[in-house]
Design a protein that fits this description.
This protein is mainly alpha-helical. The protein has ten helices and four strands; from the N terminus they run ααβααβαβααβααα. It has helices at residues 3-8, 12-17, 38-45, 47-56, 68-85, 104-122, 126-140, 148-158, 163-172, 189-192, and strands spanning 20-21, 64-65, 97-98, 146-147. Helix 4 crosses helix 5 and helix 6 runs antiparallel to helix 7 (126-140). Strands 1-2 form a two-stranded parallel ribbon.
Length: 202
């Protein structure tokens, strides 16, 4: 960008301030050789984990240190998503998958995630969007039966962050065409209403 265009760019602060430091807290440098090896990360954890971690590190405008433990953490999250759909050892569909209708609690969990992820993508707050998906997956892990339709919608909101895994799961969930042309899911406020509210009394 030319100087004049750069000064007017809405991404100026993101570009200038979003510095990633090495694990030792210093600026990454070829001289210091304190930068992570991207090929090692790709070969060990995959492109989706690397992509997801970069977005999960924190707000784009903040300086933040690189952490291999963070990469391992998002890899474990993606593994949990995989296990919602597929058996990790055999690769067969999970026996918990169901063709039934989602319960109110399941709809609430999904639509809360859709709403949060949609808003955070617009605001470029990718780290909190990923946190919302982690909350959904934690809830889904406790369900005895997981509706296939519910997971299909979840895979759509995961796809901008982990496109390779999302495409694979979309196919295994029974969709013959790529998810790339699927519309972004909308949330329904009716599903977000609580049936019961606990009110503390003193």
């Amino acid at each position: 960008l030319g100087t004049a265009l750069f000064d007017k760019s809405p991404y100026k602060n993101v570009i200038v301030n979003g510095l990633v430091l090495a694990e030792d807290g210093r600026k990454m440098s070829k001289r210091l050789k304190n930068y992570p090896d991207p090929m090692h990360i790709l070969n060990t954890y995959g492109a989706d984990a690397l992509r997801l971690y970069e977005m999960f590190m924190g707000p784009l405008t903040q300086v933040k240190p690189w952490s291999m433990k963070g990469v391992e953490g998002v890899f474990r999250f993606l593994s949990r998503v995989y296990r919602l759909v597929l058996d990790e050892e055999t690769g067969a569909l999970s026996p918990r998958l169901s063709d039934g209708e989602p319960t109110k609690a399941q709809q609430r969990a999904l639509h809360a995630a859709i709403k949060k992820v949609s808003g955070d993508i617009e605001g470029m707050e990718y780290n909190t969007a990923i946190s919302a998906m982690m909350i959904f997956v934690n809830e889904a892990q406790a369900w005895d039966a997981i509706p296939r339709s519910l997971l299909s919608t979840f895979v759509l909101i995961l796809s901008p962050f982990a496109p390779h895994l999302a495409e694979e799961l979309w196919s295994r969930l029974g969709h013959p065409d790529t998810l790339a042309y699927e519309p972004w899911p909308a949330w329904n406020e009716d599903y977000l209403k609580e049936d019961e509210i606990e009110i503390p009394v003193q």
